[in-house]
Amino acid sequence: MRRRFPLLVLLLAPVWVSASAPTPHRGAPARGDLRVAIGSASYEASPGAEGDWTLRDAWGRVHARGRGAPDWAIERRNLRTRVVFAGGGRTTAWSDEPFVLAPTSADGAVAWNGRRYRGALSFVAVDSAILVVNLVELEAYLRGVVPLEIGVRSPNESAAIEAQAVAARSYAVVRQRDALGRPYDVTSGAFDQVYGGMQEEQPLADAAVAATAGLVLTYGGRVVQAPYSSTCGGQTVAPSEAWSGAGDQPWLRSVRDTPPGSDHPWCEISPRYHWERTLDRRALDEAVARYVRAHAGAAGGAGGGIRAAWVDGRTRSGRVASLTLETDGGAIHLSGTEMRTTLRSARGEILNSTYFSPEPVVGRDGRLMQLTLKGTGNGHGVGMCQWGAIARARAGYDARAILAAYYPGAMVMRFP
Q: For the chain, what are the domain ranges?
């Protein structure tokens, strides 16, 4: 779960149901299931399936049964959908409510865009697309999340995998709790937690999910969000250091992440503990243009060539609090989040972290010719450091000890 910038905002319009009509269940999952937005299609969605399946509407009526690949597609018109069967001769009526494709055999699975999923698929018409939502039991969802978030690990790192499972479960439970008005609880990308379905499942991750089944992080008796990132660089941070406008929480305090009696951080084993990024003049100009586009009317006319760059101040943990770029049109002040999204690589990758020192090179014309950033860490730095957790697991820490180190004061409890 890297810190999240919305990739797609999807709004579900209000739906009117006649007072005389039966109340639809809206394709909702059973208690404990999660609604995961896994994709979308503009006007027509053609899912896949393995084993036996049924296609039902929101009132539970069966519109099709089959085995293997479905011979129908979901079609959208405005905020309504219908089923179009092979040959184009038969269709259902247009519906304001989702249709749901669900396996009926033990070996069944549903598929979308080449990926296989446990649970069912719901097809929701939103403003500009058919939103494809995987309705999946929470523990099954985690099997497709944990290996992608912490990587494929070794048996001596099982405690870190278990800690990852608890953190990811806590995040999902909070998102589900707070999903009022949304047609989904979480997305399947880095905006929430990366989820890849059945083909991403791994034996050690499956074992970690099973070993921690139902366990979540709580504070004051309430399940709490448990953010995590790859490499903290030796010091985790409070939310207000990482994200503009974020409020601090007692279980998300800044934690020094070094072994007792050592100056070497636990996460020093990370392949991205040290990093370097160099932006030439063209890349810097593009960064300024990117910032101006994102803050139309808010940059005070700033733009054009960059003359200088400097750090305005640092946070309590030593990260850059604000970076100033002096341009021909005025100064641009980049906050932590803005630094990471504005100073992208040529391939579009955001900045690894805000834990860096700048090394500017000024040309003969007095303009900035090159800016090199030499940094430490990877990610926002809030909550659990994944590479720190891996190192602690190798040193013999169990999952509860790892969670206690990164979420001080939080308690591990069973949900619900």
A: 33-187, 214-271+379-414, 274-376
